[in-house]
From TrEMBL:
The organism of origin for this protein: Salinicola endophyticus
PROSITE patterns in the record: MFS
Keyword terms, alphabetized: Membrane, Transmembrane, Transmembrane helix
Keyword Membrane applies: yes
Annotated protein name in UniProt: MFS transporter
Amino acid sequence: MKPVYRSALPHRGLLTLVALLLVALNLRPALTSVSPVLGSIAEALSLSPSVQGILTTLPVLFLGLAAPLAPRLVRRLGPERSVFLALLVLGVALAARPYVGTLGLLLGSALAGGCIGVIGVLLPGIVKRDFPERVSIMTGLYTVALNLGASAAAGSTEPLRQALGADWQGALAFWLLPAVLAALLWLPQLRGSAATRVAARAGARLRHDPLAWQVSLFMGLQSSLAYTVFGWLPTLLQDRGLAPVTAGLALSVSILLQVTTALAAPWIGSRMKDQRAVLVAVMGLTLTGLMGCLYAPIGGIWLWVVILGLGQGGTFSMALTLLALRAPDALTAASLSAMAQGIGYTLAALGPLLVGLLHDWSGGWNAVGGLLVVIALGAMGAALGAGRDRQVASVQGG
């Protein structure tokens, strides 16, 4: 008998859509809430630039390391219960990490990243299953919700810290509230959820597929740039002369503008013969924006964060869209998602870490630009393979 990937409730329409978007809203605040108050955290806990780099890297690393856990959880609990469990643990990690010292902050950030990694693997399969004819628009909406959560955390954490009397701990802990709300509103999804049989050898099959590797590399390299921006852009802009609140607002604006291309890029890409042109175009915008933030006169920073946001909104939404477009069925989409996000986010973690090490070693940001160019060109190369009109072999075969 072939394995299946299905829910006892075959299509839950609007309820599923709302629940998915609320969950997606929580997939970035744990990361983007740290960088606006990183200076305050470093001062309070006496963190060196290298340790700050580790703090921004750990959540991304555990996004990748935890991704292979998702298929195992699905086999035992089903996708809906797995998402619910991850939301609960995410809330606990966000509540605890500001109050348990340096080691606790690092471990809590890692745990939060792991929960986000599990959820991120599961949602594309749920989208492919419940909205098979609307994958592109659903991916765009999911990315919009994700970006709104990221932007809200980036733009409001520093003002919240100031409103709380310079309490960075309370400002970070605040972000457990959306996670709790999402868990409560996800509860109706648990009715009728049954454990899902997933092919045990699915991952092994995909690891022999060159297209699956190209999708994974694009996911990882574009994510490396995204998490570098999440973790370091406010610090970079502060070093270039912007006030902390303005630097956090610049990151928030950049993320918020991702909404436009998060919707437009999948819509355009799905109507083309293949997606290579769209992928290269959004990567080009991303690289242009990064170089402007690093080297252009600081007076024009708003132009560069706009370009950066437009590029990164398209790269991430297209990376998610490829998970569905390159998979022939929902089970394969879930398995490709696990591989691409597992390998991709583990690779992506190197970006913020290397940026921190280069910044620490050089005492400035000039050397960082070369690293970002190499990563962007690598992503473009992977895009030329992943963007072709092909599909990976179904893991349900045989």
